[in-house]
């Protein structure tokens, strides 16, 4: 089969991504093999591509891709799913010879959920990592109905899901995004502030005392913390930009991990239209390096998806 990989001796920019012919993986106990219909690109893939994670002594190359959607192709012992079942998968393990950006993916049963019925699998491929990250981050912000929440980078993949999930909790939301995202975000939240503005000052126009919590999807760090009231809560999806706690504010990091029940719930929300998956562009797997170069340029709503 073909798979997008990075050779251990060639970590680097988008040009380091190669598509190789590799052995077809076989599912073991409680594992499934998925015939991939679409695999989304995420910032975590970029970090993996650059060789930040280690050690690599046992690898000639490592696979790329955390998100996939497709159909069950084969099952290992203990798995009752039928071949042909449409599923989505969050393939969390970091260092493996092949991952989701391939023609086939083998992953464990706890990493998959039924795909949203009636949704194109290329669209469904954008759900797992980003929606789980948003959902788990919100769980670390125990806000009550009518509390106020700031979501930075609210037009992005994680931020967009966070806004939609927060609405189901009755939270009042301040969204932050680029000026060109204003029309898109105003219809989704109580208030909008532009990334061109000083964040804390702009937020306090609407919430003078500061918001009760912030989900820092844009990884702004201290500027987002400054918009939180004394004793509030700050949650970031990245550990490397966590600001120092101050004014009694709880500062938390949310490392995303697969949860089958949560993934099934998020898939169901997407099926009924509560969550809105977005695809910015589709590339064939053979053009994975070009897709990574486009991803690095940024500026797009939704995820880039590779199609084998």
Model description:
The chain is of the alpha/beta class and 308 residues long. The chain folds into 2 domains: 163 residues, Alpha-Beta Complex (Quinone Oxidoreductase, Chain A, domain 1), CATH 3.90.180; 113 residues, NAD(P)-binding Rossmann-like Domain (Rossmann fold), CATH 3.40.50. Strands 3, 5, 6, 7, 8, 15 and 16 form a 7-stranded mixed beta sheet that branches. The protein has a 6-stranded parallel beta sheet with strand order 11-10-9-12-13-14, sandwiched between helices. Helix 3 packs across helix 4 and helix 3 crosses helix 8. The longest helix is centred in the middle third of the chain and has 12 residues. The protein is globular, with a radius of gyration of 20 Å. The model has no long low-confidence stretch (mean pLDDT 93).
Give the key terms.
308 residues; alpha/beta; Quinone Oxidoreductase, Chain A, domain 1; Rossmann fold; 2 domains; 7-stranded mixed sheet; 6-stranded parallel sheet; 16 strands
Task: List the secondary-structure elements in sequence, H or E.
Answer: EEEHEEEEEHHEHEHEHEHEEHEHE
Total beta-strand segments: 16
- First-to-last CA distance: 10 Å
Strand content: 25-35%
CATH class of the largest domain: Alpha Beta
Tally of separate helices: 9
User: Any idea what the radius of gyration is?
Assistant: 20 Å
Please give the largest β-sheet. 7 strands, mixed
Instruction: Detail the poorly predicted runs.
Output: none
pLDDT averaged over residues:
93
Tell me the name of the CATH homologous superfamily of the largest domain. Medium-chain alcohol dehydrogenases, catalytic domain
- CATH topology of the largest domain, by name, is Quinone Oxidoreductase, Chain A, domain 1
Number of domains: 2
The percentage helix is 10-25%
- Overall geometry comes to globular
Architecture (CATH level 2) name of the largest domain: Alpha-Beta Complex
Sheet/helix structural class: alpha/beta
């Amino acid at each position: 089969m073909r798979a997008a990989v990075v050779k251990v001796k060639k970590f680097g920019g988008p040009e380091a991504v190669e598509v190789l012919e590799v052995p077809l993986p076989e599912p073991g106990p409680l594992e499934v093999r998925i015939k991939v219909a679409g695999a989304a690109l995420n910032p975590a893939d970029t970090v993996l591509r650059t060789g930040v994670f280690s050690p690599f002594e046992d690898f000639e190359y490592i696979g790329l891709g955390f998100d996939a959607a497709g159909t069950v192709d084969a099952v290992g012992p203990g798995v009752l799913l039928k071949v042909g079942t449409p599923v989505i998968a969050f393939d969390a393990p970091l260092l493996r010879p092949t991952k989701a950006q391939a023609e086939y993916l083998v992953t464990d049963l706890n990493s998959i959920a039924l795909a949203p019925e009636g949704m194109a699998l290329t669209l469904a491929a954008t759900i797992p990592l980003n929606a789980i990250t948003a959902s788990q981050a919100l769980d670390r912000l125990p806000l009550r109905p009518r509390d106020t929440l700031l979501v930075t980078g609210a037009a992005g993949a994680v931020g967009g899901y966070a806004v939609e999930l927060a609405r189901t909790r009755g939270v009042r939301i301040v969204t932050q995004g680029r000026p060109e995202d204003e029309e898109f975000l105003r219809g989704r939240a109580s208030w909008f502030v532009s990334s061109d503005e000083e964040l804390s000052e702009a937020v306090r126009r609407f919430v003078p005392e500061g918001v009760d919590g912030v989900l820092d999807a844009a990884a702004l760090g201290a500027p987002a913390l400054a918009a939180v009231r004394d004793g509030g809560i700050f949650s970031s999806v990245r550990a490397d930009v966590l600001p120092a706690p101050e004014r009694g504010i709880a500062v938390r990091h949310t490392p995303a991990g697969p949860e089958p029940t949560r993934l099934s719930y998020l898939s169901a929300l997407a099926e009924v239209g509560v969550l809105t998956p977005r695809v910015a562009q589709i590339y064939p797997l053979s053009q994975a390096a070009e897709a990574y170069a486009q991803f690095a340029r940024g500026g797009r709503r939704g995820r880039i998806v590779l199609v084998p």
